Amino acid sequence: MTTVTLYRPVGTQELKLIEASGWKAFPPRLPEQPIFYPVTNEAYAAQIARDWNAVHNDDKRGYVTRFAISADFLAGFDKKVVGGREHEEYWIPAEDLPLFNDAIEGQIEVVSTYVGGERFGLDGEQYEYARRLAYEASHGAWAGNSKVVADSRAFLEGRISEAAEQRRLITDLLKLAAEDPSHEWEAPTLTGYPTSYAVAALNKINETHA
């Protein structure tokens, strides 16, 4: 049977219900939830899990699940793009969810976990600044440092879920912006923040994790 891989960002309560099913099914929708929304790519699912579930859920946790489903079954539903081209999802009416679950091949698995509130000692503005450095690195800045470029891209796509690895990357980016003489002009030009801002952020993260 030909299958298609889909993803679904979930909170802790939904994950517990998935586990209770033997990792075989998603729980029924609530009356005020007429549509079930699986998405077509991990990056989009990670964005929702990180920026919504891990921010707004009471326990500040979000998870990305992955599963395979019958391509023949899925062919009966249209893809929807809601925003950027990577924001692609299927809209499954709630009444079709039992059939959707029956079409799942194998088990639903958790591929990444996000915990809200982890900013490694940085305040909100400093953390967003570090993410901006990652964005610039993934789009050509510091091209000579291939590991930072690759890790920045993976970080922004939600493929680095371990806190220690995220902190290492953010520290490396702040060091490039704050300490490397060959790049000290680059971060201010790209981000609009002076080098001293990068220095302060780097000191903050080092103090927190000394």
Spatial sequence of strands, sheet with the most strands? 1-3-7
Q: Strand fraction band?
A: 15-25%
Cα gyration radius (Å): 20 Å
Q: Which spans have pLDDT < 50 for at least 5 consecutive residues?
A: none
The number of strands is 7
Helix content percent band: 40-55%
Approximate shape: elongated
Q: What is the domain tally?
A: 2
Biggest pleated sheet: 3 strands, antiparallel
Counted by DSSP, the helix tally is 9
Describe this protein's structure.
This protein has 9 helices and 7 strands. By secondary structure, the protein is α+β, with helices and mostly antiparallel strands. It has 2 domains: 3-115; 124-208, no CATH class. The strands form 3 sheets. Strands 1-3-7 form a 3-stranded antiparallel β-sheet. Strand 4 (79-81) and strand 5 form a beta hairpin. Helix 5 crosses helix 7 and helix 6 (146-156) packs across helix 7. The longest helix is centred in the last third of the chain and has 16 residues, at 163-178. The N and C termini lie far apart (53 Å). The model has no long low-confidence stretch (mean pLDDT 89).
Give the topology.
Blueprint: E1 3-10, H1 12-20, E2 35-36, H2 42-56, E3 61-70, H3 71-74, E4 79-81, E5 88-90, E6 92-93, H4 97-102, E7 104-115, H5 124-138, H6 146-156, H7 163-178, H8 186-191, H9 195-208
Antiparallel strand pairs: 1-3, 2-6, 3-7, 4-5
Helix pairs in contact: 5-6, 5-7, 6-7, 7-9
